[in-house]
Amino acid sequence: MNELAKMKTKNQPKRARTWLSRLPTLSISNWAPLLALLILILLSALASEHFLIPRNLTNVLRQVSYTGIIALGMTFVIIAGGIDLSVGSMLALVGVLVIMLLNYLGDGWTSVVIVVVAAMAMGAAFGALNGWLTTKGKIAAFVSTLATMSIFRSLTLYISDAGEMVSQNSYYPDLGGGYWLGIPIPVWLFLSLALLGHVVLRHSAFGRHLCAVGSNPKVATYSAINVQGVYLLSFVIVGFTVGLSALMLSSRLNSVSPGDAGLFYELDAIAAVVIGGTSLSGGKGTLWGTVIGAIILGIINNMLNLLGVSPYLQGTVKGLVILIAVLMQFKRDR
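^ thats the sequence. predicted structure below, dont judge the formating
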C-alpha cells in the first residue's frame, strides 16, 4: 500500500503539468488587439468630451455592425487562405433585389419575412458562385472576386437603372432601425453572429478543417479533408453575412443607392480582420479579434469626425492603421 501511495504521489506533478499544457498560452501578441482598443478608448475619451455620450457610442456600434457582419464572414475566407473583394458590390446587388422583391410583395410583415429569407439565400448563392469560380474554375480568389465585384456592381446599376430604390413597406424600417434593450438590432445581430461563428470555428470539425486548409492544403488533402468543399463553404458563409448586412443597411435607410451602397466595404471588412490578428496567409484567426478590429476602425472614424479632421485624410489614417497591423503580424510570424 505504501509503494502504491508513493507511485500516485510521484505521478501527480506529471499530470498537473499535462493539464497546464492544455491551457491557452498568454502573450502580448494574442492580446494586442484588445489592448489597442482599450488604449484607443482612453485616448478618445480624453480627446473629446462627446465620445463617451451613450448616443455617440450607440451610433459607433451601429455603423460598425454593417461592415462588421461582413468581416465575420471574411474571417472564415481569409483563414481558409482566400479573399473576397466582391462583398461591397454584392451587398448593393442583394439590397436592390430585396427592395424590388419587397415592393412587389406589398406591405406587411409577411413580405418582410420572405425578403429576409431571400436575402440570405441570394447572398449565399453569390458567395457560392465566387467559391465555384475559385475551386472548380481554378481561378485565384483575388482575380475571380475582382471580376465578380465589377459584375455585381454593373448588374446593380442596370437593374435599378442607376436610380435609388425606395421601399414601400411600412414595416421594413423596423428591421434594421429598431432597438432592443436600448441597443440597435444590427448590433445584436453582429454580436450574435460573432458568438455563433466562434463556436463553429473553435468547437466544430469544420473549424478545425478550415484552419488545416488555410495552413497547408496539401497536408489537409492527405488528412482526408475535402479541401475544395471547405474552401467553397467559406465563400458561402461570407455571402450569407453579406445578405444579412444588406438587410440591415437597406432597412435602416429604407432605400438602396446602387452606386454608393457597400462602396469600399470590402476594404473595411479586410482591415477589421487584419487588425483583429487573423493571418493573411491563412490558417489562424479569431472571430472576437475581428469584432475588436471592426470597433477600432469605427472609433477611429468617429474620433476623426469629432475632432474635425478632413474626411479626405481619414483614408490615410485608416491605411496607416492597416499597415501597422500587418507589420506587427509579420514580426509575430517571424
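The mean pLDDT is 87.
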